[in-house]
Amino acid sequence: MKALVAVKRVVDANVKVRVKPDHSGVDLTNVKMSINPFCEIAVEEAVRLKEKGTVSEIVVVSIGPKEAQEQIRSAMALGADRGILVETATDEIGALEVAKILKGIVEQEQPEIILLGKQAIDDDSNQVGQMLGALLGAGQGTFASEVKVEGGKVQVTREIDGGLQTVELSLPAIITTDLRLNEPRYAALPNIMKARKKPLETKSPADYGVTAASKLKTVKVESPAERQAGVQVKSVDELVNKLKNEAKVI
Ligand code: AMP
């Protein structure tokens, strides 16, 4: 069984992002970039399925600038077998275009399991997995906290508001990963070295009949409002008074 994992290059989760002075986006100059954390969970899940013998090959794909090769190599160091970079001129590519490119790759590669993160932490859009499911007419198990592949089906336990829901999908199936699905491993140095020799193909959006121009335009990006300093109160009465008359929350 083949697994395809989509990984996005994003600003590292530990970096405090700076908005560009003209508010056109986030300043990426000299900023550490990494695999989107939810995509790393998707890679880890594919590797675990391979270790169990369920999956025989893991193909990792990223759509983005040339530098996204680094994230593909990182995924290979974690255990993916080969990579596809769909090179675009900019980082700004819309969710629908990404989903259409992924559809083209799925049609070529014919994976049974398609793993994505539930969302990319740069724009928190949470759309690509669902769009890909719709474009392919495939079942989707989103926000997965457990994945079991058995007898040509996959059972996905999903984190929903009221608790956990388990759905059964026929293959090929789309799975988007939530935080509690697994804890990704660290890449060992020998595996980082081995990853350099694994095959990595470069394609263009046009190879999948897609023009990478997004239908969305970012109008303005702003930093969150500064948090105001807190105050210390001397008594419960004073606290209740402030909550009632100043914050007006009770
Ligand atoms: P989003 O819908 O943009 O929040 O992203 C959800 C998931 O779709 C990510 O965690 C990735 O698995 C996949 N994805 C989004 N954008 C890309 C991209 N440019 N390249 C590869 N995968 C992507």
From TrEMBL:
Its biological purpose: The electron transfer flavoprotein serves as a specific electron acceptor for other dehydrogenases. It transfers the electrons to the main respiratory chain via ETF-ubiquinone oxidoreductase (ETF dehydrogenase).
Protein name: Electron transfer flavoprotein subunit beta
Gene3D superfamilies listed in its UniProt record: HUPs
MF GO annotations: electron transfer activity
Keywords: Electron transport, Transport
Cofactor(s) listed in the protein's UniProt record: AMP
Domain Electron transfer flavoprotein alpha/beta-subunit N-terminal: residue ranges: 23-212
Quaternary assembly: Heterodimer of an alpha and a beta subunit.
Organism: Acinetobacter radioresistens
InterPro entries: ET-Flavoprotein_bsu_CS, ETF_a/b_N, ETF_b, ETF_beta_N, Rossmann-like_a/b/a_fold
GO BP terms in the entry: carboxylic acid catabolic process
Family: Belongs to the ETF beta-subunit/FixA family.
